[in-house]
Amino acid sequence: MAPMFAMPSPRPGDGEAWLDVLDVGNGLAIVVRTAHHALVYDTGPGWNADADSGNRIVVPFLRGEGIRTLDGVVVSHADDDHSGGAISIAGSRSPGWLVSSLRDGDPIHIAFARSLRCEAGQRWTWDGVEFSMLHPAAAMYAEAGRRKENDRGCVLKVSAAGSSALLAGDVEARSESEMLARDPDALRAQVLVVPHHGSKTSSTPAFIAAIAPRVVIYSVGYRNRFNHPNPAVVARYAAAGASAWRTDRDGAVRAVLAIPGVCVERLIAQPRYWSDRRP
Fold first, then answer.
1. What is the tens place of the pLDDT at every residue in 129-186?
2. Can you spell out the DSSP letters for 197-263?
3. Which domains does the chain have, with CATH numbers?
4. In what order do the strands lie in the sheet with 129-135?
5. How far apart are CA 161 and CA 259, in angstroms?
6. 191-193 vs 155-160, strand pairing mode
7. pLDDT in tens, 189-200
8. What phi, psi does 125 have (nearest 5°)?
């Protein structure tokens, strides 16, 4: 039986990236991995003092994948459906840093050894995979209360093996237009985690055209009260030729950026027996 315990969990090869969009209901939590590094982008919602997406979904997933430590966590913005599990993840996996747009005084800051602002232009490379922050501009932090939380969000691009994925948080039309004005070519990506769960306030036609995604992923709650994703937004991406995955229908999904190209698959092939979802 010894080989059962000695076998390492599968992981990306050099120059590859895996992005696991977890099913956290109407929120967002993504685990991004390279051959020797890992981060979590957004941490899903909190539910009460004892339970949140961090300790109930993200950390168990990390444990199952053999990820004992995290290099870092990105919290795109302060809304609970994106930040609710951050403290639990920090306490369990001791990430080296937090990058966020959180306001000064947010208690999430003190859960991390190092806390930095996300700013357009930040870049780093792990195992041949490039990470680049596309939003917000540094000047945004001087605007204080004049900007919605959604439009403060950190937008992260992951590029590997000739393909890219864009993680857009909850950015809305204002932020989309700002990114288009700064550098529309930087937005191009084969995979897009659809901003703001497919809300009608996001995914403007110009933004979609600049990205030209082949695959879009909606992180949405089953029968959520906001009716995300908006049918007009779904139609817009379909008209652009993008294939669509949805966590309310498909569960957690994995996007693999590797040669010869992008592959997206369900992490659980069939719905669990207690679910009334259908394949």
1. 999 999 999 999 988 677 899 999 999 999 999 999 999 999 999 999 999 999 999 9
2. GG-TTS--HHHHHHH--SEEEE---TT-TT-PSPHHHHHHHHHTT-EEEEHHHH-SEEEEEETTEEE
3. 13-266 (3.60.15.10)
4. 123-126, 129-135, 155-160, 163-167, 191-193, 215-218, 243-246
5. 6
6. unpaired
7. 999 999 999 999
8. -130, 130
